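Hi all, long-time lurker, first post. I run a small reading group and we've been trying to get comfortable going from sequence to structure in the token notation. Rather than ask abstract questions, I figured I'd post a concrete chain and ask someone more experienced to write out its structure so we can walk through it together at our next meeting. Sequence below, copied exactly:
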Amino acid sequence: MVAVAAGVVLGELAAGLLSPSVSPVTAVGGAVIDAVPPAVKEWAIGVFGMADKAALLGGMALAIALLAALAGVLEWRRRFAGFAVIAVFGVVGLAAVMGRAQATASAIPVPLLSAAAAILVLRGLVGRLRTWSPEPGSAAAGPARRRFLQALGGGAAVAALGGVIAAALRGAAAGVSELRSKLVLPAAASPAPPFPAGAELTLADLSPLVTPNRDFYRIDTALTVPAIDPEKWMLKVTGLVDREVELDFATLLAKPMIERHVTIACVSNEVGGDLIGNARWLGWPVRELLAMAGPRSGADMVLSRSKDGWTAGTPLEALTDTRDAMLAVGMNGEPLPLEHGFPVRLIVPGLYGYVSATKWLTEIKLTRFADDVGYWTPRGWSERGPIKTSSRIDVPRAGRTVRAGTVAFGGVAWAQHTGIGKVELRVNRGAWQAAHLAPGISRDTWYQWELALPLTPGQYEVQVRATDLNGTPQTEQRAPVAPDGATGFHTIRVDVTP
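-- Answer (accepted) --
Happy to help. Here is the structure in token form:
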């Protein structure tokens, strides 16, 4: 285990010097994320939420430790058997690195170097162990034991120190974070409209109308956050266009920006879930960029690509109609946080993130749904992903005990790019009762609602439903998140005490 830890750390050190964008650990982790079936992904998000990547890294560390222990036992029993196990580690790492979109030629030798280092350390440690006589009466037992333990402890210490240095070397994000902190965003040529009177309710524990950046959900496939120097960032528009376009960050910032509140949601959001948030975004309309390129006849899809190779297939009409789809550079009055796509990401009202919200954006390719697919479509998800009308009860929380009398209920409802017309509650499957619906910021954001109900002691089932501005109510039929978003009424149970 010490030998393999030393090899892994050396690999991370080498990657920090030769290949900051990808290392053997992140490459293998990314390959695992790519390979898992949608059902496993949904299970991981359901169990670990936004800690899913930490759980994956922890699971990888455990698996590596167990295989490393196996390699040590095999090498002790039969020479070269353990070396072969570690060599397989190296081959797997090499294949994973070569399969990552951000890999460069300098990244290829890193996993092999890592495996070679682990083999050399294991060879030395096993050699020391073989000189340690297990017989207590042996005169050489004590010194040999000390030499082995010193080598073992030294290897562990070097691995730990190397890990700290590797983390520092691979801390490119720290430098980019400093650049971000000094960035001054341009003023919006079209500022966000002011909140309508009464749009933000004062009910305690209700989700805020605008989600703070620190609380905004993050679901993506990037095991490590890409660190992109904005001065080196470039966006390419390719594919079925009359003119290919290249756009750098300075040119983008000089464009007339719009500022809009837009609610975005992950397709993995369960009924009543929190993988959704509302923010004030600053960016340049995508339709203006596409107009510069000139889409050719037959194009019906835009394939956007992230720095880490992730792709999303967005209907072309969603990026060229009147909605406020944008190349976003700002979030709630500051540059995009690194984990939310700095320096540039896509925001498209009305579509789930897996077909629209590409972070760390580097390429836009005009193509056809018949010719190309985004990352999640071949993994069992639908092509277009329109967000479904839904609603949620935030207050009181499910399972909460409240006092009898007037009980305040509240929450949010959304039908992005359509808007909410009304919200209703029903208790124990009785008649629907209209809630007070606060005015929405826009049809692209969620709306807050509240309703006070007189309840006597007992147990109650409370459900909520929303109706959009077209008069279409959300469906009661329960459906899982795959393949195109969960449906059903959010239902909570409340205990009312005297």
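A couple of things your group might point at:
Residues 390-497 form a domain with the Immunoglobulin-like fold (CATH 2.60.40.650).
The chain is about 35% helix and 25% strand.
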